[in-house]
Structure formats: structure tokens, C-alpha cells
Design goal:
Nuclear Transport Factor 2, Chain: A
Length: about 80
């Protein structure tokens, strides 16, 4: 199934908002962009970056922010 143009724009906007919030170390803005569902899973790029709850994601993002002073993501 292909996404329609409205869905594509929404996805692109969310990804842009995520990259901006992440680069600015804005934890609240990052978390506002993800689902609060208790059974959501989040997968990062590292072998140890599988998060199975919002609190685990929060901890993972905090760890990322603590490990670097400057972040840059590209779409």
C-alpha cells in the first residue's frame, strides 16, 4: 500500500521535527513526537538500542544527549 501525499507530508514533517528536536537536545519535544502506547518498541542503530517502553526511550535519549555535545541528523 502506498501512502497518499497528505500522509507523506505528515511523515516528512514529523521526521523534520524529530531531527530538529534531537539536534537541539530537546527531550520533551522528542518524546512529544512518539506514541505513548505502553507496548511500543523503539529501535536505534546500536546493538544495545532497543527500547520497549516510553521510559526506556527517555533513558536512551538522555544517554545519547549525555554522550555528545553536538548532534546532527540528516534525512
Amino acid at each position: 500500500m502506498k501512502a497518499n501525499s497528505k500522509a507523506k507530508c505528515g511523515i516528512e514533517r514529523t521526521l523534520e521535527d524529530w531531527t530538529r528536536a534531537y539536534a537541539e537536545h530537546d527531550l520533551a519535544a522528542c518524546l512529544a513526537l512518539v506514541t505513548p502506547d505502553a507496548d511500543a518498541a523503539f529501535i536505534g542503530t546500536g546493538a544495545d538500542e532497543e527500547r520497549c517502553s516510553l521510559s526506556a526511550l527517555r533513558a536512551g535519549i538522555r544517554r545519547d544527549f549525555a554522550q555528545t555535545s553536538k548532534l546532527r541528523l540528516a534525512l
